[in-house]
Write a structure and sequence with these properties.
- This protein has 108 residues and is α+β, with helices and mostly antiparallel strands.
- It has one domain: Winged helix-like DNA-binding domain superfamily/Winged helix DNA-binding domain (Arc Repressor Mutant, subunit A), CATH 1.10.10.
- Helices cover 67% and strands 13% of the residues.
- The chain has a three-stranded antiparallel β-sheet.
- β2 and β3 form a beta hairpin.
């Protein structure tokens, strides 16, 4: 697979990946970024603008927690709207990836 296709696939699935991480519970920015780097090799610089957009869209809420070992951390959690978006994106992803898998299986 060419690099450009991989990049486009990552970008297309990034919202779902962030929503999936947050569906498991509240998490701070660096932790979310680290999980996504490890799972789908998405760069940290891509995550923070996405998190701001999701916050502006009402999908995530934030809170600041003071840290004794460094600067305060911003924690993100899904809002009810974010949970609904996650459920819808998950259904869409499963339907789409299932259709692609079916097409690939049917090839000679």
């Amino acid at each position: 697979m060419t690099d450009s296709i991989q990049v486009q696939l990552r970008k297309g699935a990034l919202d779902l990946c962030v929503l999936a991480v947050l569906s498991r519970g509240e998490s701070y920015g660096y932790e979310i970024a680290s999980m996504l780097v490890a799972a789908v090799n998405m760069g940290e610089g891509t995550i923070y603008p996405l998190m701001r957009r999701m916050q502006n869209d009402g999908l995530v809420a934030t809170r600041i927690v003071e840290s004794s070992s460094g600067p305060p951390r911003k924690y993100y959690r899904l809002t009810p709207l974010g949970q609904k978006a996650f459920e819808a994106h998950s259904r869409d992803w499963r339907a789409f990836s299932g259709a692609v898998d079916k097409l690939l299986e049917d090839l000679p």
